[in-house]
Amino acid sequence: MERRTLLRAAVLGGTSIAFGGTLWRGAAYAAPAQPGAGPYGALGAPDANGIRLPSGFTSRVVARSGQRVPGTSYTWHNAPDGGACYADGSGWIYVSNSEISPSGGASAVRFSSTGTVTSAYRILSGTRTNCAGGKTPWDTWLSCEEVDRGYVYETDPWGVKAAVRRDAMGRFKHEAAAADPVRGVVYLTEDVTDGCFYRFRPTTWGDLSSGTLEVMVAGTGTSGPVTWTRVPDPSGATATRNQVSGAKRFNGGEGCYYADDTCWFTTKGDNRVWQYDAAAQTIELAYDDSLVTGGSAPLTGVDNVTGTASGDLFVAEDGGTMEICLITPDDVVAPFLRVDGQSASEITGPAFSPDGRRLYFSSQRGTSGSSSGGITYEVTGPFRT
After folding, report:
1. Which CATH fold would you assign to the domain 10-380?
2. SS3 string of 198-248?
3. What are the domain boundaries of the chain?
4. Least C-beta-crowded within 10 Å: which of 8, 21, 46, 113?
């Protein structure tokens, strides 16, 4: 999935400046995504669940906060947030965080091969403000605490093994995580206005009990080469973002997703989607709402992000118009769905079933605007795979 493979010269003051080993620019060296017609067509009228979808797609409610998950005796958690799916024989599991404090944690819903809910259960308890996280290649869920000096907890989506706190991954206001099996690292975002972008290099890949936490070091622009420097004290006695001179700042790190040598992550403070080329060790903008031309930006309040095998990125909005927008491999951004009547909420936890045919997500506060009003949905249809 090579979304951008050609570097373009920037023209500054009438002079063409080539991309060099130490050059940083204020403008991206490949054009960020622009609005256009999406691959699935226009959104239709709201369905019975208040979801606007393209033709051929349908939605259903999987769970509601404070209520039993249909077909089970388990009560779904408040403020559902980051999520991921896991293959489970011929079925699958959807894991979801709870962004409340105290007693946030995470829960899971198990589905049969036909999509029928067969069980639901708790996989993490006794933690705080579990916002996003990430899936590991060895099928665990990294649940991240979005609090000062928060931890990462490695959890079992099947709920059999006890969750383990991973201190070596650093203590800071964690948001999301994405595993890069090629380089054997886990990328981490930090949700503060002057936050950083990190990677954790475990001593042994597949074992997160020990390793080295590193922070991205780069220039002040939006594109160019980067390096990584070890964070001296991951315990955060001094804030991890302030320990390394030259650490690059990001305005409110949110979602994080890795595929094919690229890690995409979002920053809500400036409505940007960033693209880190892990092979070339360069960074650029995949999307910036302030650089949209010819009309209003279709994607604002960027938050959680996931992707498909076709190369489409699906970016959820925190507020905005309560949409999940997609960014195609040819750099077109367009709405995929919209949730009506829930303007006091945010969309969280987008994740695809293992076969890529079902999309799960939550409206964190639902129609009530309260953490107790969360709703978790499933969308089925002809997704590009």
Report:
1. Neuraminidase (2.120.10)
2. EEEEEEECCEEEEEEEEEEECCCCCEEECEEEECCCCCCCCCHHHCCCCEC
3. 10-380
4. 21
